[in-house]
Design a protein that fits this description.
373 residues, alpha+beta, Peroxisomal Thiolase, Chain A, domain 1, nine-stranded mixed β-sheet, 11 helices, 34% helix, binds coenzyme A
Length: 373
């Protein structure tokens, strides 16, 4: 069986960012407009007044302090509260394609590869900006890669599921070197008028190069010792946007066509499942938890990550053992655990072990155990 390695990673971070304070000012302006416009109905008890958001709550409940976004002005406009992203002609590169190309170039450079070495492209993310042609085929062509490409969506777990697909393809001989990219424009599906979730997401794109160890030449290689995937159906994180929406006009523009979650239930149900999956995987590989140097966890909520790492390690994890990027990136869906890996892998020494783990809608959980070469 071929030994597959991750030989390069890349990250595209948008240039604009929004602090909690800025987001809350915009949200509260919207609330005050709404309550003023509905003053009579609120007084009559037929409409419920909206409550204000606040920065201290956001940081305490989630650990998020700010987020990078594709378009700040549209999100912070209380009359709009959505990013302004102009439609592009079919002859121009798509927004997700541009993000993917930027992250891919860094990953290729780190892996010491050119596009001629790559023969498979996976675009794996929560939201694809169109039905077809596949974003991955556009990315493949923009980079000048021969071979084949396809899209996949497993919500926040898309990247770890994409890694397993790449490993399978390399081991089966259908690809030699895979580019797996995660262009996440999470602000495009976030309801900025919803107090419970308006602070959750940010935008970013990650890229990973995977190949047979025999042909890898990068200074920074991680052997993939094992991948484990799990899915269990749940409606607690759901987005009903889709191509059938126009077939029932009564549902158009309703809040369920954006991200909706029951955050408390997600927290309670997903944390034990994730910890159990990682622990079972380490057991199977006969890796004692004290031999685990790092956990690059999905970045949705700081308390969730603290709970998961504590369950796995049997004690609190240090910031070095379970690095945090959600404070400045917020939840970037499938990109989150890969951003953590990309930014916090260079100090890992040969022979040291770590696990990249993502979790989210589906429910879906993916964990990838790595050993530094
Ligand atoms: N500002 C101020 N107060 C707020 C608020 C806001 N923006 N949003 C909610 N609140 C209030 C609620 O009304 C509630 O008030 P009450 O106690 O008087 O009823 C209180 O704060 C607690 O709300 P709750 O929703 O229970 O907060 P929480 O501690 O569960 O934190 C999340 C909310 C979403 C941050 C948290 O549940 C979470 O992160 N869950 C997992 C999310 C996740 O990983 N999702 C995966 C997506 S891929």
């Amino acid at each position: 069986m071929k030994q597959v390695v991750i030989s390069g990673t890349g990250l595209y971070t948008p240039s604009q960012s929004i602090s909690n304070d800025e987001l809350v000012v915009a949200f509260n302006a919207f609330v005050s407009d709404y309550n003023e416009s509905n003053k009579a109905q609120i007084a009559a008890g037929t409409v419920e007044a909206l409550a204000e958001s606040n920065s201290a709550f956001i940081e305490k409940a989630s650990g998020i302090k700010s987020r990078y976004v594709i378009d700040k002005a549209g999100i912070l406009d209380p009359k709009r509260m959505a990013p302004s992203i102009a439609e592009r002609s079919n002859d121009e590169p798509s927004v997700q394609c541009d993000m993917a190309v930027a992250a891919a170039k860094e990953a290729l450079a780190q892996a010491g590869k050119t596009v001629a070495d790559v023969d498979m492209v996976i675009v794996a993310c929560s939201n694809l900006q169109r039905g077809y042609p596949a974003m991955a085929v556009e990315v493949q062509t923009a980079l000048g890669i021969d071979g084949f490409a396809y899209d996949m969506n497993v919500a926040c777990s898309s990247a770890t599921f994409g890694i397993q697909s790449a490993v399978n393809a390399i081991q089966a001989g259908s690809a030699r070197c895979v580019l797996m990219v995660n262009p996440e424009i999470c602000t495009g599906h976030l309801n900025f008028r919803d107090r419970d979730s308006h602070f959750i997401f940010g935008d970013a794109c990650t890229a990973v190069i995977l190949e047979d160890i025999e042909q890898a030449s990068s200074d920074s290689q991680f052997k993939i010792l094992d991948t484990k995937l799990q899915t269990v159906f749940s409606n607690n994180i759901r987005n009903n946007a889709g191509f059938l929406n126009r077939c029932d006009e009564s549902g158009l523009a309703k809040p369920d066509k954006l991200f909706v979650q029951n955050g408390r239930k997600v927290f309670k149900e997903v944390c034990p499942m994730v910890a159990a999956q990682i622990s079972a995987q380490l057991d199977k590989l006969a890796i004692p938890t004290e031999n685990l140097t790092r956990m690059w966890l999905h970045q949705a909520n700081l308390s969730m990550n603290k709970l998961i790492s504590k369950r796995v390690l049997g004690r609190e994890a240090s910031i070095e053992e379970s690095p945090v990027i959600l404070d400045r990136y917020a939840n970037t869906s499938s990109a989150g655990s890969i951003i953590a890996f990309h930014l916090y892998k260079d100090d890992i020494k040969a022979g040291q072990l770590g696990v990249v783990c993502s979790f989210g809608a589906g429910y879906s959980i993916g964990s990838v155990v790595l050993e530094k070469c």
